[in-house]
Amino acid sequence: MRIECPHCGERDLREFTYRGHALALSRPSEGASAEEWDDFLHNRDNPAGATQDLWRHDPCGAWLVAERSTTTHQVRATRAVRGGEA
Amino acid sequence: MRYSGFRVFREGLRRNSGWQPLWRDPEPKPAYDIVIIGGGGHGLATAYYLASEHGLTNIAVLEKGYLGGGNVGRNTTIVRANYLLPGNSEFYSHSLKLWEGLEGALNFNVMHSQRGVLNLFHSDGQRDAAVRRGNAMINQGDDAILLDREGVREKVPFLDFDNHRFPVYGGLFHPRGGTARHDAVAWGFARGADMRGVDLIQNCEVTGIDIEGGLVRGVQTTRGAIRAGKVGIVVAGRSSQVAAMAGLRLPIESHVLQAFVTEGLKPCLDHVVTFGMGHFYISQSDKGGLVFGGDLDFYASYAARGNLPMAEHVMEAGMSLMPMIGQARVLRSWGGIMDMSPDGSPIIDRTPVEGLYLNCGWCYGGFKAVPGSGFAFAHLLAQDRPHETAARYRLDRFRTGSGLMDEEGTGSQHNLH
Amino acid sequence: MRVRGGHEIDRRTPIRFTFDGRVIEGFQGDTVASALMAAGVRLVGRSFKYHRPRGLVTAGSDEPNALVTTGQGAEQRPNTRATMQEIWPGLEVQSQNRWPSLSIDAMAVNDLVSPFLGAGFYYKTFMWPRSFWEKVYEPAIRRAAGLGALSGDSAADRSERAFAHCDLLVIGAGPTGLMAALTAARAGADVILADENTRPGGRLLSERIEVGDEPGAEWAARAAAELAAMPNVRILSRTTVTGAYDGGTFGALERVALHAAPGAAPPECFWRIAARRAVLAAGALERSIAFPSNDRPGILMAGAARSYLHRWGVTPGKRVAIFGNNSDIYRTAKDLSAAGVEIAFVADTRPGESGKGDWPVFQDARVVATRGRRGLSGIKLDHSGGTAQLRADALLVAGGWNPAVHLTCHMNGRPVWDEAIAAFVPAPGAVPGLIAAGAAAGRFSTAACLADGVRAAGEALEELGYSLRGRPDLPEAEDAPYDITPLWTVKAPGRAWLDLQNDVTTKDVRQAAQENMTSVEHMKRYTTQGMATDQGKGSNVQALAVLADATGRGIAATGTTTFRPPYVPVPIGAMGAGARGEGFAPRRLSPTHAACVARGAPMIEAGLWMRPSYFPRDGERDWRESCDREVGHVRHAAGVADVSTLGKIDVQGPDAGRFLDFVYANGMSGLAPGRVRYGLMLREDGHVMDDGTAARLGDAHFLVSTTTAAAAQVMAHMEFVQQAYLPDLDVAFSSVTDAWAQFAVAGPRARDLLDRVLDRPVSWDGWPFMSCGDVSVGGVPGRLFRISFSGELGYEIAVPARYGGALFEALVARAEDMGGGAYGMEAMNVLRLEKGFLTHAEMHGRVTAFDIGLQGMLSAKKDFIGKGAAARPGLLDATRERLVGLRAVEPEDRIVAGAHLFGETGSEGYVTSAGFSPTLGGFIGLGFLRNGPERYGERLILKDRLRRIEAKVDVVAPGPFDPEGGRMRG
Q: Can you tell me the distance from the alpha carbon of C36 to that of C30, in angstroms, rounded to the nearest whole number?
């Protein structure tokens, strides 16, 4: 599997660490309810198909969002992480 | 038809023309008391225990493919009761006891082999953690023995003791742990349920769950609508899809775990051995192949197949730990869909929808739980209260933070368990 | 029997090897299989279950029967296919799975009781008496199971792994692959051409087929030579592509040097090939027909016989019979006859005249029986004219061809049934970027293959953006139609074999259907058909046909077989090459490593790092003595310890303080320059991630320290937080763990010691507890921190890493002058236990700030990572297991980590760390106990039932030594 790092170009899977769904970028604001935190930390759509993942390119430390399929593993696009988007 | 050596002999004389089907292929009825979605190990065991323990037989198991075609047919067959934390400790202890009587109960040879599970450790810190866990096992009433380096050498002399990057300090040995034949377990439970009157419906995919006024009414399937008083969801990696049919969003992320088997070899490994500096584990099947695996691939997946980096990591761990397997050849690799939960421990609980019950979150450890999970889920379905061995497997524990069972200590990231 | 011809062998170079101790002579280029065939050895193995005699069936990697063990000791390779092992002088080959010998195998008795060993029999028995399963039945089953044996010796780690990249990977170098490679290479693409055989040519090497106006093998050699001369082409011979993975990644196994005696070259190389596009030109594999007694030695595939003839100049018998359902049977007869082999007959299953020759030809023919236990001697046929019983010592079967679809199934693809050729073909797009061509796509004539190779490469080139220049001319070649009438089985009395290795017959498949194992997967698992080392290459389709027939469905409706990697078995030592010993993981060494080793310190693993355990002195009997002494150094004089391995992250920028406010639970932005603060970091789920310190070196400059264990995790976490949540902050940070050597200097005489190394005297009053600043030491700029993990007056001094060794020596020498010295991990642990300071033994990932009594550090004034989740009621429950200190009641009792703490309700907690405190004169420890801090003063029983240790312990506040901290704050 190959993923495109925004800084380094297309690199092999073994250079990347996966974190989870990109909804981790939508962090609840201070004072959010327990339900919001529960949703954020635990509950997932967990789609069989198109998803958005968070990956770290270990050699350069860049975090990126990948649009990927969980059934075919094909990576459609990647972009560098920016705050607040999911 | 009861199985026995005598029966094998008799049927052999009749040129094997008299064997009966292991199970029927019934048409689904319009309604059942309980519908179990998922014909894998856990679903089939649930049906069996509903019939055998609770006398409930107006039950259907709906399986979208063929029985036992999911994770139960793809795993590395390890059976053990060596967990650390309360909640898991009593559950797996009970499950192991069920394993020990399983052949007799099912009249099917599941080839349960209590050859011992050896968890190696490679530092003082790891040893201390192993001691804590071994003591938890003994306190639970199960068996654990602490081995030093020489003790490990006596059991598995072919480990690399001289040259290993992370020397073996010792191991925690669990004599009653071992392996079983995975297909046989599924088939044994299936046959047991079927002969007690449970309908096993294959090639029947659930496409919708009917709910009226917060109460479950039945399911829609590719083979028609089926009404049900209660519905139990036990579909492992597909839990989120099926739960979504009831409007539920689960704390589950589905991941791929690769596993491997080598060509058949004469006996060389008599125990299950796990490596402490990486999630590598290995045993030898009764057919002779070395069965082994390691970590998840770590990215969310429904593909039931993984990629080379993790496959190579697993091979590296094997080579570094027991270099004599270097000349063994990997014959086949495969993958399953693991329903990973935020603390790595399962969920057996009711859902906010009345009459809808959930059994999921087994991550990659579901095989050993097949009898215990089926038993507990049957109890919950039959009596509407959790069985005492599974009382902590609550769905709401993540929201409240109460009763988390994080064996790995890695926190609320699904793929780290 | 050796005949003329055979372009693979060099008759000028005879080679001797042994088979089961018997010397066999062959030629350079022979495989073990061809050499045995030349020597007339027909019995090469025994089947798995019934131990029936087995002979060669194929000439390639799909061989199910001729599995042998080569070599000894570390070079012992079980389950080697004799068809793939080229001979070299002195090669030792042993047959497998037989005792006492291949010709007299005691386990053949299984065959006599075969009716009782049918499909799934072991599920129905071996259950009584219960204890017998593990004591009697299973051991017997295990001993009978398996094929070859591992030697038990550590396999020498000489194989390698490699990466390669290309525009186009061509899999298979037959006519299709060669044309594809030529097309792509001439267009300028980077091409890798991989082929399983010793040289390119594929099927052309095994047939008398002309390409253009030359023999196919010669045309192939010319094409290969042109490719080899091109700089943009790499030819990988003896290389099998084993798996198709995501993103155009392929695994491949190259048999680099297995065709020669073990030497300097790696025996195998496992390739990871990243290809932008690929052409699957892997050809097709021949399948058999299941007729009664079709498993005798001497019965093989017709295509294999042509391979043996043309490549190695050998024939499987003197009087050869041929049986099949397609026109290959006539080609086979002609080729063998031209080499001087007697043809017993040709039996065509099809009705009507198809071919003639100087031998009997039977139409509408079925082989219904064969004779000859250790090797074929006779055949009984039904045919349009009646019945015939004929002598023959070899029977060649042509049951049709299966396109090699395997790789196309590796990514969840399922092949498609093509009725016209009675075979499965690849589903288009099953592997993104992979184009099937030639026989692999179901096109069997030579002309079709040549054209298809060009077509497939053309498609790939267009997608890659290359223009087609220098497109090769298509040479003329035969274009005969594939004239097959499918026949899968012959229904006649007697067992007809499907899976030759696992001994699965057509009866077994029908029995499975009878028992309602009607799905393909159930049938396969129940009968074990297709689960042998050939993964069913030779039997899957026939078994599927039997199942279809037994369940009244067509083949396509019954379901398809699928394949998973690897296409051929791959040694663990190849896929894991380089992992033995030091190759498994990096070893991180501190700047003082050599100095510690020189002092005799045992170095122990701390993650990837090596750290000194203790520094033994002459006359000390054991580590405890050293440890007690070192603790004394720190408590009474001055001790020096290497803390370089702890994580250090340099954080700079105007917003550095704000950034740290967000990652730490407590505040950092208010820290004054020149001061240091203890910090607690939570995970977002509210549990403790790590603790450490932040030192403010300037307004816009912090140095964050982490534990050794969590350094990498914290760094990745901070990078995520900054990029994901705080991208607009003006802050940058970098890991500097390896850039600085750092030493703890601790004890009542710490200042004296530092005075002797610092270049300029320091006014110690200007260095309050938890302060920091720049210093100069030995002419080198360094940093000094007043912090203490030992609870004594303590500092840490840091210099650039390359000076660390020298500084360590200087510090230790001066410490020893003062009656102190170096101290290691054991002493460090005791010192911190005496003070109740925590490590990851306590912060084990399930622990909250509340659990360790640091709830007060969670700031109410700002948001921070973990704040929300830490407020969950379950994380604040007083009955949680919470941190306590422990003291053994009796001076001779031990507290041990991992023991449980027993109160009235049973196990109520556990010990995380423990050690003997020379300062306090007894064992102390830390642990977690339900309601912990509310139970100080309670007496519990510590039980380590694993090691039978029991002791009374008192629950105390953690850190009983100098609880006010006067020694370190003074």
A: 9
